[in-house]
Amino acid sequence: MPDFEAVLNALPLGVVLARRDTVVVFRNRAATAVVGLRHVDLLVEAAVDRLIRQTIEGGAARTETMELFGPPPRVLVLSSVEMVDGVYLVVIEDISERSRIDAVRTDFVANISHELKTPVGALSILAEAMQDETDASVIKHLALQIMKEAHRMSETIDDLLELSKIELDAPLRHNDIDLVALVREAAERHARSALAADVRIETDVPDGQFVVTGDHTQLLSAISNLIDNAVKYSEGGDTVTVRLSREPGLIVIVVEDEGIGIPQPDIDRIFERFYRVDRARGRSTGGTGLGLSIVRHIVANHGGEVNVRSQEGEGSSFRLVLPVQIGDTR
Ligand code: ADP
Question: With a 6 A CB cut-off, is 289 part of the ligand 1 pocket?
Answer without folding.
Answer: yes
